[in-house]
Amino acid sequence: SEALILAATEGPVRTLTLNRPAALNSFTAAMHAELRAALAEAAADDSVRCLVLTGAGRGFCAGQDLNDSEMAGDVEGVVERHYKPLALTIRSFPVPVIAMVNGVAAGAGANLALGCDFVIAARSASFIQAFSKIALVPDCGGTWLLPRLVGRARALGLAMTGDKLPAEEAERIGMIWRCVDDAALLDSTQSLAAKLAALPSKALAETRRLIDSAAPMDFALALGQEAKVQGAMSRAPDFAEGVGAFLQKRAAVFKDR
Ligand code: T3D
């Protein structure tokens, strides 16, 4: 069967492409496993001096695959086993990580991108904190990342409404590094990657670590807290209603208080 993560190397730059385009590259347990392996391989390879994450097809990543059976019983476990280590791996990666956001980034897919050191998005791309629509809370670092990127008012606004934020607006409010024309996405990313690859990796990684540890709550602690609350949310009836409504392509009716 086809690889769920495509890896390509051009000089010092490794590009990993999420490859489930028919489901907007949403995460299954299998895709998580392949991404983990590909990240470990890139981290261990001294010739890799910059990592690019992107998505195949029209989307970047739609977050958790809401059809995946693994999440049915144990959402807290899914967050602990998959999203938390993924976010931590990227946040402590030995070389800079660029999210090249080619299309919609929703739920954990949005926060996967925001956890990277740079986000370059195509003008047609967008970001959606989709969690509230299925009665969950942001994970994959969203509760820590968002207020730091855009401030409390915008963080709450985005996370509570789950509204779609176009890439241009995301750049305007400082949530991402750059929004570029679709046709320029690859070139812009490649030239940033080449620049970063030529800089001293160790100093860049330490810069990231210092900037992150200067923040009041530790990233790992925030990720643990997210997993716990996500577990509690997923056991409430509103979550089943939210997922059911999405899969049946109808509007959800929430009742929990
Ligand atoms: O274990 C846990 O649950 C805990 C972890 C939680 C982390 C999370 O990420 S929770 C958030 C999960 N993600 C979402 O709720 C987003 C769901 N997707 C959407 O709202 C929409 O697909 C988008 C706004 C992202 C894009 O809309 P649009 O109209 O451009 O595309 P579409 O038609 O909705 O999607 C295209 C196909 O991808 C479609 O399949 P089909 O009808 O062509 O066979 C759609 O069902 C599928 N798809 C999109 N997102 C997901 C998905 N399938 C499964 N899971 C998805 N998340």
UniProtKB/TrEMBL annotation:
It comes from the Bacteria. InterPro entries: ClpP/crotonase-like_dom_sf, Enoyl-CoA_hyd/isom_CS, Enoyl-CoA_hydra/iso, Enoyl-CoA_hydra_C. Pfam families: ECH_1. Belongs to the enoyl-CoA hydratase/isomerase family. This is Enoyl-CoA hydratase/isomerase family protein. The lineage of its organism: Bacteria, Pseudomonadati, Pseudomonadota, Betaproteobacteria, Burkholderiales.
